Amino acid sequence: MTTLLHVLPVGLSLLNSLDGGHMAEAAHALSTVDGAASADDTVAARLRRASDATTHVLDIAELIGAESLEALAGADAAECSEWTSVRLVASGAAVNSRAYVLIASDTEPGLRAATLVAARYATGSVVRYVADPASGPVVIEPGTVTVYRIPNLDIQRGLPNDLTWRALGAVGHAVATTTGDAIRDRWDVVLHLSGGYKAMVPYLLVMAEGVNSVFRHHSAGLADRQPSLRAVTTHETNKNQLIDVPVRYLDGTLFELAKKLKVHLDGKAWTSDTRRWDLLRGLILDDRHHLTALGTILVNVL
Q1: pLDDT value, residue 282
Q2: Which single residue of 119, 184, 233, 260 has CA 20 to 30 Å from 83?
Q3: C-alpha count within 13 angstroms, C-beta hemisphere, residue 12
Q4: Torsion angle in degrees (nearest 10) through CA of 227, 54, 64, 18
Q5: Per residue in 47-99, pLDDT tens?
Q6: Is the pLDDT of residue 27 over 70?
Q7: What are the distances in angstroms from CA 202 to CA 11, 105, 175, 288, 297?
Q8: Is the pLDDT of residue 147 over 60?
Q9: Is the dihedral of CA 290, 251, 246, 205 positive or negative?
Q10: What is the mean pLDDT of residues 159-172?
């Protein structure tokens, strides 16, 4: 049994298609007038009300309407970069089941786009909405679609901070633990880099490196059940061509040292000798008390 897990940072390309007049049934789903929505009428508030506080299960049909759900499920994959990339990967994959993880910004357009992108895969699947990924693990299962809201992920306003990086790391942790601990099934993970903020690509790749490191460290001996990770993007001019993006991993001493960096989440100083610390330069600040953004992501994945 093989499950293919698609990890999708979501941008605004679908909203641009909707705003251009396509899929009229879905055009106004979750729409709000900029600056006019009350606190109870934001996309985030509606998602919170439509999802179970314990299980995170989201009633997406009630949220956006049956007609919108049907229109999005049957839409042309070319309507947005996320759907296009999934189609290109899925067309050549022999798998038993699929699952989807969508990484959304906490802006109104970002959450709206992620919800509508998720709707395409909702039919016959359990949809979950996780407002705070860092609050606790959410198991990713075959046949599920999980939308993760990443706080302060607003590149234009320069807001990303430790909350952002911890949440992104928590998403990676959910992917790593779900797929790495599977004992009956094999999981193949694909990170799609065609959608979302392009400025986030380096941070997403660090998340992927953490997941890949866990796979390499914990999955030795699983043989045909060993999970795999692949990062892809569509070609800049030929949207039907996938380009593989290399994903590194830590092993041996580097992996063990990276796990010890968790102490810095509490602002404690690095106590190992300087030569070993130098191996992880770029993950910890020179004050040796705090992690960089990349270090925060990686530690939370591990």
Answers
A1: 79
A2: 184
A3: 12
A4: -40
A5: 999 999 999 999 999 999 888 899 999 999 999 999 999 999 976 667 788 99
A6: yes
A7: 16, 16, 18, 23, 11
A8: yes
A9: negative
A10: 93
Burial (CB < 10 A; 0-12, 13-18, 19+), residue 260, is middle
Using a pLDDT cut of 90, give the percent of the chain over it. Answer: 50
Q: What is the mean pLDDT of residues 280-288?
A: 72
Distance CA 16, CA 127 (A): 24
Tokens of 29: 């789903």
Show the tokens assigned to 282.
């770029």
pTM of the model: 0.91
Which tokens hold the place of 283? 């993950």
Token pair in block for residue 48: 């919170």
Query: From CA 111, how far away is CA 18, in angstroms rounded?
Result: 15
Distance CA(203)–CA(296), nearest Å, equals: 10
Q: How far apart are CA 70 and CA 267, in angstroms?
A: 49
CATH architecture of 2-249: 3-Layer(aba) Sandwich (3.40)
Angstrom distances, CA of residue 233 to CA of 174, 193, 246: 22, 5, 11
pLDDT score for 216 = 83
End-to-end CA distance of the chain: 26
Could you state, in order of their start, the residue ranges of all structural domains in the chain? 2-249, 251-302
Chain segment 91-122, per-residue pLDDT in tens: 666 778 899 999 999 999 999 999 999 999 99
- DSSP labels for 82-112? HHHHHHHHHTT---SEEEEEEEEESSHHHHH
Distance CA 139, CA 176 (A): 10
Are 88 and 240 contacting, i.e. CB atoms less than 8 angstroms apart? Answer: yes
Beta bridge partners, 144, equal 126
